[in-house]
User: Fold this.
Amino acid sequence: MRYEPAFQFVVRVAMCDLYIGGQAIQTGQQIVCVLGAANRDPAKFAEPERFNIQRQPNPHLAFGYGPHFCVGAMLSRMEGQIAFSTLLRRLGGIQLANDTPEWRPAFGIRSLATLPVTFSAVLS
Assistant:
């Protein structure tokens, strides 16, 4: 979720005048928050360009934050645990067929078009 978030950015509207990074933002102005960049911030993540499934802590923003936190986050995490544990249990020796996944051409929403894998056995 941190390494390749589905949503690369969100748009918000400033509710008051403020300064962020020395930049003046006025009430009502739209702000683009680039989650893809925030999730790789070296101030928050050691080795931000490295995929590490056991990364702790992992304060990514893939599900949003605060009042904008995704109401389906817990369900999504549960579905992911079920899907990945089932795949790993049933497909012996599963690995990527190549090092270059094919991404769908889309602005702001990131998803795979294909993800070829190989495996050695179908286990029960």
About this structure: The chain has a mean pLDDT of 91.
